[in-house]
């Protein structure tokens, strides 16, 4: 590996609500059990907004970014020998956790009360370098496209991990995807490749061709058809994945759940849902969320995507164009994930 520079370039939030500034930041050597990564790609997520507006109260300055792919540039003391200089690695949402609480011990570190979220509690990947504790680093297969792999570490894992943890759902069951965007375009692919009868609903027919290309077996245009009635004709949904932050949409689809069905809410919906409790009771149905995952889950997600052909659709930007990438993402103009890339 080449000698490390004294400083590196990064997109930095310095004040609440203000645009990110491209700044030179001091490069410090990794500490005990830390890994220094030279970033090749860093995905821009809606959650970058939490950093911009200090939603977690951690303050400024802060470098955002929690969909990071790069090569190991340096290792701190005590790092596991599986991590070698130059290895391709990834960092997602869960960049650190305590490892001692009941949630961690039971295998759910993404729900740890002391979680360290990349780009929120610690500096993230919209930079030439990022330093992360070893438990927050995933080993990735060589030969993958870093720009297309980066979104799998947040959007991808959120869909894949949430879906595979619904124990009642089996191949051949009906899986409905509501929303075709950054999460939705990956959800369609993961559902199809996992063997589900994949049903996509959208408010117009304009996305039908795209949905079918991505793997939809059935497309329902809600401007022309009653989606709940159409899903009921199929026997009800075993899974409904909500990928759009639309409380009205999610509420309207509850009665489309079949026996032992699960509504998996992956979008950050801030408004209350209206739920038909009688329908849930009569069908032993449920509504749940799923909080991303940890390094081993990122590895599983990338391996599954590589083997099955699941691929993120991305638009790439330079670090200097971070604000443009963020703006296109927030306005739902990007198709379908903005990714910052580095030479």
UniProtKB/TrEMBL annotation:
Keywords assigned: Metal-binding, NAD, Oxidoreductase, Zinc
GO cellular component: cytoplasm
Cofactor requirements of the protein: Zn(2+)
UniProt superkingdom: Eukaryota
Cross-referenced PROSITE patterns: ADH_ZINC (PS00059)
Chain ranges of the Enoyl reductase (ER) domain: 17-340
Pfam families, alphabetized: ADH_N, ADH_zinc_N
Gene Ontology MF: a single term: zinc ion binding
Entry's family note: Belongs to the zinc-containing alcohol dehydrogenase family.
Protein name listed in UniProt: GroES-like protein
Organism in which the protein naturally occurs: Gonapodya prolifera (strain JEL478)
């Amino acid at each position: 590996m080449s000698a490390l520079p004294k400083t590196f370039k990064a997109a930095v939030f310095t004040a609440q609500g203000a645009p990110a500034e491209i700044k030179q930041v001091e490069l410090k050597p990794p500490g005990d059990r830390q890994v220094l990564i030279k970033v090749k790609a860093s995905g821009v997520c809606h959650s970058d907004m939490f950093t911009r507006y200090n939603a977690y109260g951690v303050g400024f300055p802060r470098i955002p970014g929690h969909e990071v792919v790069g090569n190991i540039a340096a290792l701190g003391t005590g790092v596991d020998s599986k991590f070698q200089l130059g290895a391709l690695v990834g960092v997602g949402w869960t960049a650190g956790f305590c490892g001692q609480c009941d949630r961690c011990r039971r295998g759910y570190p993404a729900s740890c009360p002391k979680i360290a979220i990349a780009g929120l509690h610690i500096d993230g990947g919209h930079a030439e370098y990022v330093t992360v504790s070893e438990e927050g680093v995933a080993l990735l297969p060589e030969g993958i496209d870093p720009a297309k792999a980066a979104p799998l570490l947040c959007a991808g894992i959120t869909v894949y991990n949430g879906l595979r943890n619904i124990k009642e759902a089996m191949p051949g069951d009906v899986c409905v995807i509501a929303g075709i965007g950054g999460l939705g375009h990956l959800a369609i692919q993961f559902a199809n490749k996992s063997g589900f009868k994949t049903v996509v609903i959208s408010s117009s027919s304009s996305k039908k061709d795209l949905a079918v290309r991505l793997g939809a077996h059935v497309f329902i245009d809600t401007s022309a058809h009653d989606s709940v009635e159409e899903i009921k004709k199929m026997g009800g949904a075993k899974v409904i994945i909500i990928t759009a932050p639309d409380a009205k949409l999610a509420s309207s689809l509850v009665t489309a759940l079949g026996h032992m069905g699960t509504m998996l809410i992956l979008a950050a919906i801030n408004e209350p849902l209206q739920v038909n409790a009688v329908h849930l009771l009569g069908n032993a149905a449920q509504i749940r969320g799923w909080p991303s995952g940890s390094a081993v889950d990122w590895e599983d997600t990338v391996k599954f995507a590589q083997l099955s052909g699941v691929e993120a659709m991305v638009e790439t930007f330079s670090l200097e164009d971070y604000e443009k990438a963020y703006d296109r993402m927030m306005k739902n103009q990007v198709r379908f994930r903005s990714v910052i890339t580095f030479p």
